[in-house]
Design a protein that fits this description.
disordered N terminus, single chain, disordered C terminus
């Protein structure tokens, strides 16, 4: 009888762990190529941190027990994982991630734009979080890919791994960038592109993008979150 009681207790103690499995693995891939000056870099990093702190976004990340990774990318062979996977269990975890993003050093300043290479590096990170139900790459960029493998060449591998790619196109110097990202970069069910007319628009646009990407897609949202999300569209 004692053995049976211990067995039942063990099964019940494991149940919350199963129920709280990771719902989302999110790679934040930020463009740091030569077309992004120091002020624009700061706008991106501070805007991204502010977007994560948004109440709807942070609540959805905690609810999803999300894993989040920061990748900075530029030209061919110049992409790096700046912040490895961070598990989000509490609002304190969200704040710690936001602060780390704000403090992250810029690795490069004067190189080309290799979107396909960035996607490939991001793809290589997902085996470490294979327990997560959804796998998403969030690409921010202000230019066409002009070096390395083409973004579409990575689509087959992304599809095989079940990875969705969304993008924010900063059209400050490339007015047709949204169309390019739509045709060549994004992929997966429900994939989308958000446009920012300039870097000045980036903070508000990345916030809305994260709301759509994280909160609307996260299963079993807390009561009332759907209404809050809808009000931000």
């Amino acid at each position: 009888m004692r053995v049976l009681q211990l067995l039942v207790f063990s099964m019940l103690s494991l149940w919350p762990l199963r129920a709280a499995a990771c719902d989302l693995a999110l790679v934040l891939a930020v463009d740091v190529s030569g077309s992004v000056d120091a002020e624009e870099y700061r706008i991106q990093m501070d805007g991204l941190a502010a977007g994560l702190r948004d109440g709807v976004v942070s609540e959805a990340l905690v609810k999803a027990r999300a894993q989040v990774l920061l990748l900075q990318w530029s030209g061919e062979s110049r992409q790096e994982v700046t912040l490895p996977w961070s598990e989000i269990r509490t609002f304190g975890d969200v704040e710690a991630l936001a602060q780390a993003i704000e403090q992250a050093p810029r690795p490069w300043r004067n190189y080309s734009t290799a979107v396909g290479e960035a996607l490939f590096l991001a793809l290589e990170q997902f085996p470490a979080v294979e327990h997560c139900k959804r796998r998403v790459i969030d690409v921010s960029g202000d230019g066409f890919s002009n070096e390395g493998i083409e973004p579409r060449e990575v689509h087959g591998a992304l599809a095989a791994a079940g990875v969705t790619v969304n993008a924010i196109a900063i059209e400050q110097s490339e007015p047709d960038l949204t169309a390019y990202f739509f045709e060549n970069v994004i992929r997966g069910e429900g994939a989308f592109v958000v446009s920012a007319a300039s870097f000045a628009d980036y903070p508000s646009r990345i916030r809305k993008k994260l709301v759509r990407e994280v909160a609307r897609q996260t299963a079993a949202l807390p009561a009332g979150t759907e209404r809050a999300v809808a009000s931000l569209q």
